[in-house]
Amino acid sequence: MYGFRLILSAFIFIILSSVVFAQTYNFDTHMLDLKGELSSDDAYQDNFGRFDAYQLNMNKGDYIKIKLKADFFPLITIVAPSGIHKISFPDDQNPVVNLEKEINETGRWYIYVSGDSTDVGAHELQLCYVAENTRQLPPDSDICTITQFLLAHSKTNFFYYRDKDCDVENGSWDVDLPNQNLFDNEEVKAKGNSVSFVLQTNSNVNKNKFGEWSYQISECLSDDWIEKGSDNQTVFIESSGSRKIKIEYNSGKITLSFITSIK
């Protein structure tokens, strides 16, 4: 699915390969925590300092959010395939750098974590990624496409709909999910050790729709999901237990929830 491997000169190659959820769309999100350490043995360049480097293959229209924490005063330099670069550094003496970027070139990008010539110590790079075709639902999305789309976002704790914040805090966020006419209200909720994306119809929905959607969701899930049902509720549980889909019918409304456990 996804992978990364260590290569020469402390480079890490991150393969952001698409996860196939549907016949038509390859929705793709990814979250990585990369831990490293600057030491006296790391590469050093005049006017740049001591650094570690990472490389990523990305496509135009992708989106990344990066948070860097370090034991020293760090800099992040992100370099496009064309060589154009952007430098970010802490706003104050707190050794944390935040960077977000809509990718405008397809190819191999480089991320450099650097300090000055005397800096040594640990650093942690948190990276949240959404592919271009996963930033918005395709036009006229049906229940299966919505399911596949939100399952992809569940892999990153729906960060893209929580003000693009990789860190999870308790709260709720109103969401506008365009290109579908099945649900009228959407929000993301974070509480305790779980995050849920909740969609709800307005009142006066025929109960037959509940059965129809339950069946369609079951048909577009893989064999890794276990289905449990009752008269007004169907629950799909991933075999790993980390994710759950729940569809409910109550007082003429249908509520569809995608719930993921925070790792």
Task: Produce a short descriptive summary.
With 263 residues, this protein is mostly beta strands.
Radius of gyration: 21 Å
- What class would the helix/strand composition place it in? mainly beta
Beta strands, count: 18
Q: How many helix segments?
A: 2
What's the helical proportion of residues? Answer: under 10%
* Strand fraction: over 45%
Q: What is the typical, i.e. mean, pLDDT?
A: 88
How far apart are the termini? 18 Å
- The biggest beta sheet, please? 7 strands, mixed
Walk me through the structure.
- This protein has about 260 residues and is mainly beta.
- Helices cover about 10% and strands about 45% of the residues.
- It is built from 2 helices and 18 strands.
- The strands form 3 sheets. Strands 1, 2, 4, 5, 7, 8 and 10 form a 7-stranded mixed β-sheet that branches. Strands 12-13-14-18-17-16-15 form a 7-stranded antiparallel β-sheet, with helices on one face. It has a 4-stranded antiparallel β-sheet with strand order 3-11-6-9, with no helix packed on it.
- Strand 13 (about 185-190) and strand 14 (about 195-200) form a beta hairpin.
- Helix 1 (about 145-155) packs across helix 2.
- The protein is elongated and about 70 Å long.
- Mean pLDDT is about 90; it is low at about 1-25.
